[in-house]
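CORE FACILITY INTAKE
Project code: CF-77B
Contact: R.S. (postdoc)
Sample description: multi-component assembly, two entities in total
Requested service: structural model of the whole complex
Turnaround: standard
Below are the sequence entries exactly as provided by the requester. Do not edit them.
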Amino acid sequence: MKKTIRWLSIPAISFVAICALVTSCAQLRPGEDPLVVRAEQTEAAAKSTFDLVLSVDHADRGFWRTNSPAFHAFAEWLRQPQVVRVTNVLPRASAMILSLNNIKGEYVFSKSYSNALVSAIAVLQSAATEANAWSIIITNRPAR
Amino acid sequence: MNPAVIAAMPVILDLIAKGVPAVIQLINWVAAIRKVAQQSEAWTREMEDAFIASLIATASDPAYAVDPKV
């Protein structure tokens, strides 16, 4: 299996996959609010990224705590309980996404405060970007 | 789409090709990002509810639980 994967050149796989991803990026349907769709895309991408980072850290917490304390600390930061909607407690990763979702809901309802929505998207994107960076760092290893 | 996600994609695909330890999670991530990239309209009520439910469910997900205090 590994020999088959090596036989296919890595740049070729990457190129095809990127083409498939980019060319399959759909354009917005007429009448759709780009800010709302952008917010939802950000929420879904952030959820997937946080899932990835936290599941990798959870697979062997002791290992990461010892060998990559900064990564484990970031994962723990994402896990810190936060109070949302007055009575619920959620991990910070989910609370940040839910916060953006709430602001999106207010924007859809009122069609104003777009600045607040843009800011909330930027905040979540920055956390997801950091998680993305960690996902690259911690899943990498020297070539054999 | 977040430019950082697109920028990360070649590296992630390279890692998948190398078969790194977390390869299954990486493949799931790429599949999820592809789905996100194809979104062309606002979520339906059902999709919104399902997404919120998945967020609420993280409260009891072991991967989302903080380290136990010793």
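Facility notes:
- The mean pLDDT of chain B is 87.
- The first helix of chain B runs from residue 3 to 18.
Invoice: internal transfer
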